[in-house]
Write a structure and sequence with these properties.
It holds the Pfam family Cofac_haem_bdg. This protein has 13 helices and 14 strands. The protein has about 400 residues and is α/β, with parallel strands linked by helices. The strands form 2 sheets. An 8-stranded mixed sheet has the order 2-1-8-7-3-6-4-5, sandwiched between helices.
Amino acid sequence: MSLSRRLIPALVAPGLLALSLCLALAPLATANGNACPDAAPGQWQATDGTPLGTPALLSELAAQRVVLLGEQHDRLAHHRWQLHTLAGLHAHQPDLVIGLEMLPREAQPALDAWIAGELDEAAFLEASDWHRHWGFDPGLYLPILHFARMHRIPLLALNVTPALRQRLAGEGWDAVPSAERHAITPPAAPPAAYREALTEVFRAHSTGADSEASLESFIAAQLVWDRAMATALAEASGPGRLVVGLMGQGHLRHGHGVPHQLYDLGIAAQRRLLPWSAADCEAPPRDLADALFLLGDEAPFEPTAPPRLGLWVDGADDGVRVQGIGRDSVAEGLGLEVGDIILRAAGQALRRPSDLTALVSRQPPGSLMPLEIRRDGSVWELLARFPSASE
C-alpha cells in the first residue's frame, strides 16, 4: 500500500494531529497502469473494474449497519457525491443516521437543534463552534445538513476534541477516566500496512528533528481519531438502521482506520465507498474500497482554493506553537521554524489555532499579512505574502 507523499498545504491544524489531515486530503494513490476504466463517469464499479448496477448496489448497502463515505474535505464534487448517495440510501432505508467527522461530541446539542428546526445557519455554526472545530468552508457541507434537516434524519457528531486526542495519545488511555473520554475504549492495534503508511506520511512531512516518540504520538493520535469515530458509529447502529459516516478518505482506505476499528467493535456488516476520477485514466489500487463512484471532469466547478500558510500549529499559553511546516509553503519561505510561537496575525492576538485559520482564510490572493512571532525569547515581525491568482 502506498500513500501520496505530496503534501497538501493545510491552512493550519492542531499539532501532529494535522498530519492525520494529510491522510484525508492527499489524493488517492494509484496503481501501476494507465488504462482508462471501462465504466463511464456516473457509474459505480468495484476496484477490480467490474461495473456495479446502482439499484442492486444501493439495496445491498442499505442492508448494512454502517456505510462509510470518504471525501477529500475541500472537494465540492466529493460532497455532491455524498449528498446524492445519501439520498439514494435514504430511499432504500428510511431509518438513517448521518455521522460527521467534522464535529466532536460536544457539538451534538447543536446538531439536534438544527434537525429540529430551532436554529438558522448562522446560529447553528455558532452553536456548534464549526469554525473552531473544522477548518473547512461550511458551505461545502450545508447542502447535506439541509437534506438531513428536510427529512428529519438524525445527525451524529463522531469526533472528539483535539485536546482529548492529545491527552489520550500523550498520557495514555489509563490516565484519562472513562467518563472523560466518552467511554471510548482503547483502539485495536493497527494493521501493519496501516502503520507503515502512517509512518511514510510522517517521515515525508517531518522536519528532520522529529523523534521516534513524535512518530509514536502521531500514530497514537490517528488511532484515537479512528476509534472515536468507529465507537460513535457502532453505538448508533442497530438492526434495521443504517448509519452513514462522512469522513476523510484516509480513515477508510483499504479497510484500515475506522473499518478496522469497527470490526474490532463487532460491526462486520459495513461497507466503504469512495469517489474516483475517471478523467485521470488511472486504475485504482485493488481493495481500495468496496465500491467506487466514477466522477467526470469536475474541476471547473471546484471553488478557488483558500490561502494557505502551510504549517501545523498547536495551542500555547500566549499564542499558537508551530509544530510542522510544509515544504515549499508560505511558512517555509518566511523562515518559520518548529517551536516558534505566533503571537499575533494581521494585528490580532491569537488564542487558539482556529483564530489563525480564520484570519488566513480571509486573505485575498496577493495580499500581505503581518505575523508577530517569538523565538528563543526574542519577538519580531514577519510579513507573509500569499501568492496572487496568476501565481
